[in-house]
Amino acid sequence: xxxxxxxxxxxxxxxxxxxxxxxxxxxxxxxxxxxxxxxxxxxxxxxxxxxxxxxxxxxxxxxxxxxxxxxxxxxxxxxxxxxxxxxxxxxxxxxxxxxxxxxxxxxxxxxxxxxxxxxxxxxxxxxxxxxxxxxxxxxxxxxxxxxxxxxxxxxxxxxxxxxxxxxxxxxxxxxxxxxxxxxxxxxxxxxxxx
Length: 194
Fold this sequence. Notes:
With 194 residues, the protein is an alpha/beta fold. Helices cover 19% and strands 28% of the residues.
């Protein structure tokens, strides 16, 4: 795999990536900030620092429209000026995203553009909707799940709308850190056997 499309997502043990009532001004929902305590160690030499540096070294970002809007459109720059491709069902003609961001309305085309833009570096995926769309389209190669030992009980789930077919995964890396386990999975393509 030359240019993997890789989801980076913090998730509670019960599968939530945001608490309830996620909205502007409360982007992570009630209690959802707990999923990101591990970022306190992002500048360390330990596993969380390693994972954070890897995420920052990606060559393009592919995200969902909801995530993009809740993040204040990142003012057009997610990190270091890499292209930001925003999956959306519809883009209004006059709505031009700022900076390095652009809208794409087709998942396959968005994945192709992201791979081309990233060159030999991975593509970072943000957002539950984008992850689900990419999985359904057979375009998500890896998932880096930052599993946090908390049960949020409600909120926005990562894997709610995948369709009726199982998706096989291979665990390719497990890093234990303070308050989080970083799990990287390779995603099997539809029809590929485990």
